[in-house]
Hints:
The chain is mainly α. The protein is 53% helix and 6% strand. It has helices at residues 9-18, 27-33, 41-51, 61-65, 67-71, 80-90, 100-108, and strands at 58-60, 97-99. The longest helix has 11 residues, at 41-51. The radius of gyration is 12 Å and the shape is globular. The two termini are 25 Å apart. 26% of the residues are buried. It comes from Danionella cerebrum. InterPro entries: EF-hand-dom_pair (IPR011992), EF_Hand_1_Ca_BS (IPR018247), EF_hand_dom (IPR002048), Parvalbumin (IPR008080). Keywords: Calcium, Metal-binding, Muscle protein, Repeat. Residues 39-74 form the EF-hand domain.
Amino acid sequence: MSLSSILSADAIDCALKDCQAPDSFNPKKFFQLCGLTKKSPQEVKNVFNILDNDASGFIEEEELKFFLQRFSAGARVLTDKETKAFLAAADDDSDGKIGTDEFQALVLS
């Protein structure tokens, strides 16, 4: 399964263009622009599984840096500031990683 089987390529492009500049990434805005906020909880879970590069059941800080590149190989990496802000926004239990439920809560809230 790929992200483009869940989200439209045009929506992904729009979301990526919106955050091309360093320190301009906003997870909630990105999820809205790429159409993820309109998807079912199961589709959001499927996206999480694609983004969980090492299949650990969590998206760790190291994986978050390359978050945009999971949507498009040519996208930039997130800055340290963006990575930490993204983690802080989603990591409800403060364990330093984002679980499926935390990801769903951030996307669908």
